[in-house]
Amino acid sequence: MIDNATLITLHKSLTGEVLFDKLHQTLYATDASVYRKIPLAVAFPKDTKDLKILIEFATKNKITLIPRTAGTSLAGQCVGDGIVVDVSKHFTNIIELNVEEQWVSVEPGVVRDELNRYLAEHGLFFGPNTSTANRCMIGGMVGNNSSGTTSIKYGVTRDHVLELETVLSDGSVATFFKNQ
């Protein structure tokens, strides 16, 4: 069992934060599904270094990390009794847009509709149109392979992902490319 002193030490090692008070545990115990599971804590990493620290901590202490963006999934994917890792607070940047090649690089906490407002001035859009498009985030859409009302015409999320830079369970960073 992880005690509060250990979680405080984890918190101090991050540039982001780890919260383990009852309010945050309760808020993150649910998503848009019917499932409920009280997490050990909620982390708000600020950068890749924080993610690596969280992975190392989870591995050492044999606990799970539950990645989360907006929590709009309907099947309970982002609830659990480990540490919820919420990237919606700090990983929210649109990094680069290449209009000519029609691609954009984003962090996982970018809201789908905000991305499309940004892309609209260039005559572009991100096709999957979920019912939660005004609050769902790209990271969650990738994790769930989100679709929606326009998926027959424009495809699902995986159809639009060209590459993913990820932090693996051993803390290493890997980039995965779409097989073209």
| Main sheet strand line-up | 1-2-4-3
Distance between the termini: 46 Å
Largest sheet: 4 strands, mixed
Structural class by secondary-structure content: alpha/beta
> Gyration radius, to the nearest Å?
17 Å
Residue ranges: pLDDT <50 for 5 or more in a row? none
The coarse silhouette is globular
Q: For the residues shown, what is the average pLDDT?
A: 95
| Helix-strand pattern | HEHEHEEEEHHHEE
Please provide the count of β strands.
Answer: 8
Oligomer: single chain
Question: Treating each run of at least 4 consecutive H or I residues as one helix, how many helices?
Answer: 6
Task: Characterize the structure shown.
The model has no long low-confidence stretch (mean pLDDT 95). A hairpin with a 4-residue loop joins β5 and β6 (103-106). This protein has helices at residues 4-13, 22-27, 48-61, 112-120, 138-144, 151-154, and strands at 17-19, 41-44, 65-68, 83-86, 94-98, 103-106, 163-167, 173-177. The N and C termini lie far apart (46 Å). Helix content is 28%, strand content 19%. It is α/β, with parallel strands linked by helices. A 4-stranded mixed beta sheet has the order 1-2-4-3, with helices on one face. It has a two-stranded antiparallel sheet with strand order 5-6.
